[in-house]
Amino acid sequence: QVQVVESGGGLVQAGGSLRLSCAASGTIFNIHTMGWYRQAPGKQRELVATITSDGITNYADSVQGRFTISRDNAKNTVSLQMDNLEPEDTAVYSCNAKVQRRSYGRFFDSWGQGPQVTVSS
Fold first, then answer.
1. Regions of the chain with pLDDT less than 50
2. Where does residue 70 rank: exposed (0-12), middle (13-18), buried (19+ CB within 10 A)?
């Protein structure tokens, strides 16, 4: 099985910073992409940022320039540094890993439980 363990989140004022971390473990041959998604009350889950094993990043337009995603392939960890937070960033954030469990196997999504990020004005 694959486990995804997250840390971080909390309550901060607008303009503040938070750092989210995520670690995947278990039966893992390869992880192609890791990233973070978020879901605000009454809204659908949306992509925040992703990073491939080669270091290619993808950010939502709303967080571009404020959030930075990084990854340690050897440790199967990914972090999201969130700076200059805005009230609109308030959401439950979920870590995602696209995991390949064996050579030539398919990739599947593994999700963390999701920490809450709340930004006050």
1. none
2. middle
